[in-house]
Specification:
Blueprint: E1 2-3, E2 10-11, E3 26-27, E4 32-35, E5 41-43, E6 55-59, E7 68-73, E8 77-79, H1 103-113, H2 118-124, H3 131-139, E9 149-152, H4 153-156, E10 160-167, E11 177-182
Antiparallel strand pairs: 1-2, 1-3, 4-5, 4-6, 7-10, 8-9, 10-11
The chain binds zinc ion (2 copies).
């Protein structure tokens, strides 16, 4: 990366002059920051000179005895709606008709005829479903509320670990961090 020492704007290796000030660029040896809003890179700034947005670390120039450390936590949260009452007999008059006898048959029926396309099923059975069953089917299109937590793995067992490495924007799936060492249990 090359940098303009006058306006602190960062360019790639091929660029020789600053587009803004015409200054000759020099090779960068400082930490690089990125604007969250316009994505432009700068050195030696806290805020973007273009739009005033705060800058985030993009790449640190580490000396051989420097390294970055971060905490990482992994957890599972399960959410659910309130239970809604269904009468399985209501589906015996539907198209196609439900002909099973237990919850297992009913799950198979719903999977094959209803749940993958609830709207079409309701359209097709407008006259066969009572209001309450139809409302429940519509509700099944929605995600549960985020507050309706039924399980949170953090209450049972914490799962946090530490990683050593360096900020590296190429590692997008790892939060822009190149992990060199980790004490995570498998
Ligand atoms: Zn410049
Ligand atoms: Zn900006």
């Amino acid at each position: 990366m090359n940098v303009c020492k006058k306006c602190n704007k960062v360019y790639d290796e091929k660029s020789q002059f600053c587009e803004q000030c015409g200054e000759t660029l020099v090779q960068n040896t400082a930490d690089v920051f990125q604007c969250d809003k316009c994505r432009k890179l700068f050195i030696d700034s806290e805020f973007c000179p273009n739009d005033g947005s705060p800058l985030k670390i993009y790449q640190r120039n580490l000396t051989s005895n420097q390294i970055e450390i971060r905490n990482v936590e992994h957890y599972t949260v399960q959410i659910a709606t309130e239970p809604m009452l269904l009468n399985m007999d209501d589906f015996k008059n539907c198209v196609p008709p439900y002909e099973g006898t237990d919850s297992n048959d009913f799950m198979t029926y719903l999977n094959e005829n209803t749940l993958y396309d609830i709207e079409s099923f309701i359209d097709q059975n407008e006259a066969n479903l009572d209001d309450s069953t139809r409302d429940i089917l519509w509700n099944l299109e929605d995600h549960p509320d985020e507050e309706n937590v039924i399980y949170d793995s953090r209450n049972k067992q914490g799962n946090m670990w530490h990683e050593l490495g360096r900020t590296n924007p190429d590692y997008t799936k790892n939060g822009g961090f190149e992990t060199l060492e980790s004490n995570q249990y498998d």
